[in-house]
Specification:
A hairpin with a 2-residue loop joins strand 11 and strand 12. This protein is of the alpha+beta class. The protein starts with 12 loop residues before the first strand and ends with a strand. It contains 24 helices and 12 strands. The protein is 44% helix and 14% strand.
Length: 559
């Protein structure tokens, strides 16, 4: 019937008024959160004369703030992130090399390729790329790059345009350029040009037709031809739906530059902050750590004597490394993590397995959390993983008897400085953990293999016989044959319309991962080797369905 059937709230809309809101609009409580909201919708609020802003939160701002904090803590250097030098050579060199992973707005294959071609040398280049990398305006980028690299190609369709297009090599880049064209070439006033902006931005057909007529008439009155007016209107078209205004592009550009500056000048602190911002997203963490490896930054597993809640920078043998935080361990709560850290900061490092079990009086140290600590390698310096897992019940019993018995008083054994007076924890011997099982546990709890990789044993063989997944994704054309090797991370089984089973696999090597499609004929023949954590060689052809690279398998073999 066209009637409102529920109350929905704009995620980031903030209404501003000169006097109390009730003088202008009816208000009510948001049924879900209890915040005060307007009863009018976004359009009616503006018609009532109020100002409406959309305030969007960016995770990158938190990342920058954390990176600045770490630099201050480790190096005692104050970084004014709002006033960075905009001519930093290291930053532009890094971008020109395409090392854009984990920067804001500048990462991704398409944007990275343009940055390599452009070789930016100033903030305006970054602002312009951010504004142009949208559907429509993107077609201007190749010409922008050509003119940047060869100034003799710069020209203006009308001499009056140099005044506002000088910075962008004579090309229309921002929504503002449309407005200046209307003012300078068609004689619009600022009030008229604001109506023109609204018509263009909202793509109202009747209004657009009226504006085109007005613009062409103005162009003729101001000394140009109808043909020139039509040509200019055609140039406006790509910007009509997606044109960035200059202020927006400059704001994004400043944050993009700041992330690139921090990555280029303070790489270990910045990557530590990036990891903290994405803690909990296992796939994203794995991707960031791959970039750390490329940057030759060592990422260490969690450690109960070194880790904080979040990722942190530590120094080992004079080398700075990133240490996993305890919050990033799966099945391990923040409460128990905070308790372990606070106890260590208050009473010193954990000297032995017994010392740890006696001092952790928190009830959340149970079988699930202790197993997670052991399996991910956080307890490696206090004992052997296999032995600790084999004696899990003994460990929990020891913890219960010693820690909880004395949790409201000092431990009797704590009075003895000599370790020999303490009752010893009885541990049964256990066979060594198989490499595959140890690595699988790390992958499950941390999202990646830390102490090795299942493909390590086959490294030499792989270098000779197969391509890297990254190479296949970037250098191989659709339909071409390829051979890749990797470990099966994920299996999704599907039943076809004909009732046959087929599989979609997520296969990863040291640097990247890709989807592998296994059609019924191959699946029936090879299903005995299609299981998670198996290492396979896959022969197939590259497919770019919906623009996403995948391999259609023609043969599979186990490594």
């Amino acid at each position: 019937e066209g009637c409102a059937r529920h109350i929905s709230v704009h995620a980031a809309g903030v209404v501003i008024s000169p006097r109390p809101l009730i003088d202008f609009v009816p208000i009510q409580l948001d049924p879900k959160g209890g915040k005060i909201i307007t009863q009018y919708d976004m359009h009616s609020v503006e018609e009532a004369g109020l100002l409406k802003f959309d305030f969007l939160g960016l995770k990158n701002l938190a990342t920058l703030s954390e990176a600045v904090r770490i630099v201050k803590k480790i190096r005692n250097i104050e970084i004014d992130i709002e006033n960075l030098p905009l001519d930093d050579k290291k930053t532009y060199e890094m971008l020109a090399k395409g090392e854009t992973a984990e920067t804001f707005q500048l990462n991704g294959e398409g944007m990275t390729k343009y940055l390599i071609d452009l070789k930016p040398t100033n903030i305006h280049d970054i602002n312009a790329l951010i504004a142009l990398y949208r559907p429509g305006p993107i077609e201007v980028i190749p010409e922008y790059i050509r003119r940047k690299n060869n100034p003799s190609l710069v020209h203006y369709l009308d001499p009056r345009m140099e005044k506002y297009l000088g910075e962008s090599y004579g090309l229309i880049v921002y929504q503002d350029d449309l407005l200046f064209s209307a003012i300078e070439l068609a004689g619009y006033s600022w009030l008229e040009v604001d109506k023109f902006r609204k018509a263009v931005g909202k793509k109202i057909p009747e209004e657009m037709a009226a504006q085109k007529e007005k613009f062409t008439k103005g162009v003729i009155e101001n000394g140009q031809t109808k043909e020139f007016g039509d040509m200019m209107w055609k140039l406006f078209e790509p910007f009509q739906a997606y044109g960035f205004n200059k202020a927006h592009a400059a704001s994004y550009g400043q944050i993009a530059y700041a992330t690139a500056y921090m990555k280029a000048n303070h790489p270990i602190e910045y990557m530590s902050a990036v990891l903290t911002a994405d803690a909990g997203d296992v796939d994203k963490i794995a991707e960031i750590i791959r970039e750390c490896v490329r940057m030759k930054i060592k990422v260490l597993p969690p450690d109960i004597n070194q880790s904080l809640g979040n990722f942190t920078v530590v120094v080992e043998n004079g080398v700075e490394k990133i240490r996993f935080g305890l919050y990033s361990i799966k099945n391990f709560g923040e409460g128990i993590a905070d308790f372990i850290i606070e106890e260590r900061q208050k009473n010193g490092l954990y000297k032995s397995l017994e010392d740890f079990l006696e001092r952790i009086t928190n009830r959340n140290l149970n079988k699930k959390s202790l197993e997670s600590l052991v399996k991910c390698g956080a307890m490696d310096k206090l004992g052997d993983r296999a032995e600790m897992l084999q004696n899990m019940e003994n460990l929990l019993l020891y913890n219960k008897e010693h820690a909880h018995k004395n949790e409201n008083q000092d431990s009797l054994f704590g009075l003895f400085s000599d370790e020999s007076f303490r009752p010893k924890l009885r541990m049964e011997k256990a066979p060594a953990l198989p490499e595959r099982g140890r690595l699988a546990s790390e992958k499950e709890l941390l999202g990646l293999y830390i102490s090795g990789h299942p493909l390590d044993a086959h490294k030499e063989k792989l270098a000779k016989r197969s391509m890297g997944i990254k190479t296949v994704k970037t250098e191989i054309k659709e339909g071409m044959s390829c051979v890749v090797s990797g470990i099966i991370e994920e299996i999704k089984l599907v039943v076809t319309k004909g009732g046959d089973k087929m599989a979609f696999l997520r296969v990863a090597d040291f640097d990247d991962n890709i989807e592998v499609v296994v059609f019924p004929k191959i699946y029936i023949d090879k299903k005995n080797i299609i299981e998670q954590e198996r290492c396979l060689v896959i022969k197939g052809r590259l497919s770019l369905r919906n623009g996403n690279p995948s391999i259609v398998a023609e043969d599979l073999k186990e490594l």
